[in-house]
Amino acid sequence: MQRLSDCHIPAQRVRRALRLTEQQFGGAPLALHQLQFVEQGRDVMVIPPGDSRPFSPVKQQWGFSFNTARPETKLRTLAGPTVEDLFRAALECESDQATLPDAVGYYRQVIEASPDWIEAHINLGVALYQIGEIDGAQDAFLKAVQLDPWNGICRYNLGCVLEERGEIDEAIRHLRCAARVLPNHADARFNLALAYEKRGQRRMAREQWNLYLRHAPNGPWADQARAHLKQYAARRKPSAPIPFPRKA
């Protein structure tokens, strides 16, 4: 912690980023020496072991890999800023609600130049969702899933949007995939439980509520999960028998 504090990243923010990363990637507890941390505005981004890309555990989206150049074969020549410059500009715009539309514009320019850059599609979907453009967010997440069907974050984001739109069966399909890829991703369990409830599958919902609490017993939605489980327990409580009428 001292080494990171010397780099001016507060220890409390590092601990929070570490905890969220462990929850979202479904692995064993991570040691600090296995990780690299990057400060992007107000966000602390984590570079997981074996990867070169920084991930924001708070926003659940990937950032630009500052150490790895994009494949040249996927880029078309741009006059002025490079796609890396545009990606950085988009990340900076995401820190303020007022500049989110600018972030959307930058991400679209990145995708036009580098259409297979999956992180740009994911981040575009998040930005669009935050400004209320649900149709566009769904399209961006769907494109990301098509590029990488086993990316758990893509599946989770798409499932959340589909659930919000009332497309429950498709939402469950994508959220179940996200839960398989990221088994300790607590939020995937929470949203899967909600989707099962909407479809009337209380047993499946109860299982997911319990899994959410297993992975995030003190998470932001823990009280809601316990409230749902309490309702199920009340329904299962046997009613008192109705006594036979006495003869006059």
What is the helix content? 55-70%
CATH architect. name of the largest domain: Alpha Horseshoe
| Beta strand % | 5-15%
Helix run count: 11
- N/C terminus separation: 81 Å
**Major sheet, described briefly?**
2 strands, antiparallel
Strand line-up in the sheet with most strands: 1-2
Order of helices and strands: HHEEEEHHHHHHHHH
By CATH, the superfamily of the largest domain comes out as: Tetratricopeptide repeat domain
CATH T-level fold name of the largest domain: Serine Threonine Protein Phosphatase 5, Tetratricopeptide repeat
CATH top level label of the largest domain: Mainly Alpha
Q: Can you give the mean pLDDT?
A: 79
Structural class: mainly alpha
User: What is the radius of gyration computed over CA atoms, rounded to a whole number of angstroms?
Assistant: 22 Å
Counting DSSP E segments of at least 2 residues, the number of strands comes to 4
This entry's quaternary arrangement is: single chain
Number of domains: 3
- Shape descriptor: globular
Q: Any low-confidence stretches, pLDDT <50, length ≥5? A: 1-9, 66-79
